[in-house]
Amino acid sequence: MLVAKGREKREMKRLRIGRSDSKQQTKAKSLKEVIQQWDLLNPEGAIPVKLVKLAPRLNTLEGKTIGFRANGKQNSDHFLNRIAELLTKQLKDVKIIKLWEVVPSSFDYPPKPEDIQKIAQLKPDIIIGSQGD
User: Fold this and answer.
1) Residue 1 covered by a domain
2) C-alpha pair distances (Å), 48 with each of 39, 44, 51, 54
3) 97 occurs within a structural domain
4) b/e map of 26-41 (b: 16 or more CB within 10 Å)?
5) What's the CA gap between 16 and 60, in Å, rounded?
6) C-alpha–C-alpha distance, residues 66 and 97, integer Å
7) 83 inside domain
8) Nearest-10 crossing angle of helices 6-17, 22-30
9) How far apart are CA 103 and CA 92, in angstroms?
10) pLDDT for 52-97, tens place per residue?
11) pLDDT single digits (tens) 7-64
12) Residue 103 backbone phi and psi in degrees, to 5
């Protein structure tokens, strides 16, 4: 650590408080100016998104086939079992497919192409997914 004494200390004080005299200007000229170049990045993390057409929405779930997809975590199937129970009580002719029972590897992410094919062959009108922990 450098310690300024006497005259140097007074000159540094003058530089700090902005006094203008020839000694201060000489001292300021003797300091090297360091120029830094900065690359500024946008922190948004925004990426272009392609718009896709959404599937048409169902007017009702009555008479429909509903696939339930659990993510394989503990208790994710408990929630879906309860939803399935409520839907079968409230809706006429609803068919429930518990994908974790029919296609056990359906909880993989991203889904495997062969699992997608198996699920498509079941012809669900809608799939409801659940996360659990």
Assistant:
1) no
2) 22, 12, 10, 18
3) yes
4) eeeeeeeeeeeeeeee
5) 76
6) 6
7) yes
8) 90
9) 25
10) 998 889 999 999 999 999 887 888 888 899 999 999 999 989 999 9
11) 555 555 555 544 455 555 555 555 667 778 888 877 777 788 899 998 889 999 999 9
12) -125, 85
Q: Which amino acid is at 122?
A: L
Is residue 95 exposed (0-12), middle (13-18) or buried (19+ Cβ within 10 Å)?
middle
| CB neighbour burial string for 110-131, b if at least 16 within 10 angstroms, e if fewer | eeeeebeebbeeeebeeebebe
Judge whether 17 lies within some domain.
no
Q: What are phi and psi of 110, to 5 degrees?
A: -70, 155
Cβ count within 10 A of residue 53: 5
Query: What count of Cα atoms within 13 Å lies in the side-chain half-sphere of residue 73?
Result: 9
pTM of this prediction? 0.58
Q: How many domains does the chain have?
A: 1
What domain range is 76 assigned to? 65-130
